């Protein structure tokens, strides 16, 4: 059976369920090249759901020029969503951006946790403020093994950022879709369409 060119599923197309949001969130995904090959990748849904979400491929020796230009834009205040000793709450950095009259631009490292740490370590050009998000409870993501406590999938990070920017309805729509995607993918991998799914 031929896989859908949009969602990649074979037994049930998920394209019509992807939320199309009207949102102020400006987001750039810096994606490890391995992540494109993973059917469990959730960053792709943010690109399709958010009007101001772009994806860039991370390469150790050559930063993406288009992302560098976006970061240098006079109207943007770019921050990296990453938990570190230097991280500050999103709301605090958002207030700083407002005082400067700039729009928040969030960069998210899209890959496994090990890949994200490597990407940051080998990208000195990412020397920008770090922000941490206040996740509501533990991750519900169940599509990868060895998921550690406190770690969120990329779509959950996007949802948490929407909540931080006072867009709770958009955040909920992303979370609802994530649950549907997880159940649909698990059914697809088992060789059949998902039946009797309730949001």
TrEMBL record:
GO terms for biological process: tRNA processing. The keyword Transferase applies. Its EC number is 2.5.1.25. Residues 1-190 form the DTW domain. It comes from the Bacteria. One of its GO terms (molecular function) is tRNA-uridine aminocarboxypropyltransferase activity. InterPro entries: DTW, DTWD2/TAPT. Pfam families: DTW. Keywords: S-adenosyl-L-methionine, Transferase, tRNA processing. This is tRNA-uridine aminocarboxypropyltransferase. The lineage of its organism: Bacteria, Pseudomonadati, Pseudomonadota, Gammaproteobacteria, Vibrionales.
């Amino acid at each position: 059976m031929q896989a859908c060119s949009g969602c990649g599923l074979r037994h049930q197309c998920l394209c019509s369920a992807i939320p199309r949001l009207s949102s102020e969130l400006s987001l750039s995904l810096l994606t490890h090249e391995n992540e494109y090959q993973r059917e469990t990748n959730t960053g792709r849904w943010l690109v399709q759901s958010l009007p101001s979400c772009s994806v860039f491929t991370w390469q150790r020796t050559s930063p993406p020029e288009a992302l560098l230009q976006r970061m240098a834009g006079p109207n943007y205040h770019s921050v990296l969503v990453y938990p570190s000793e230097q991280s500050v709450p999103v709301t605090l950095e958002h207030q700083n951006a407002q005082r400067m009259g700039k729009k928040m631009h969030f960069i998210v490292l899209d890959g496994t946790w090990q890949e994200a740490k490597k990407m940051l370590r080998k990208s000195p050009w990412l020397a920008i403020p770090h922000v941490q998000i206040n996740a509501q409870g533990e991750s519900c993501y169940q599509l990868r093994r060895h998921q550690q406590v406190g770690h969120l999938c990329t779509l959950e990070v996007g949802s948490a950022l929407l909540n931080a920017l006072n867009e709770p309805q958009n955040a909920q729509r992303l979370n609802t879709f994530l649950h549907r995607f997880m159940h649909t993918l698990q059914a697809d991998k088992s060789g059949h369409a998902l039946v009797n799914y309730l949001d």
